[in-house]
Amino acid sequence: MAMKEFIARLVMQYDFKMEHEGIQPKDEWFGSNCIPNRHAKIMFRRRSPTS
Predict the structure, then answer these.
(1) Among 12, 23, 32, 33, which residue has the least CB neighbours within 10 Å?
(2) Which of the 8 DSSP states describes residue 37?
(3) What pairs with residue 44 in β-bridges?
(4) pLDDT tens for residues 4-51?
(5) Residue 11 φ then ψ, to 5°
(6) 37: which residues sit within 8 A by CB, 6+ positions away?
């Protein structure tokens, strides 16, 4: 349950975007396995409180 609370807080309180918007980082291959790029950068910032 703690993981769900953590993810919910991130989604509700932070804005996210990729370092290079609109460009998907190339996937990495290990043999026949394809995984997301481990070196891709995600930028995030705390949302300003709305009142």
Answers:
(1) 32
(2) -
(3) 16
(4) 999 999 999 999 998 888 888 899 999 999 999 999 999 999 998 775
(5) -65, -35
(6) 25, 26, 27, 28
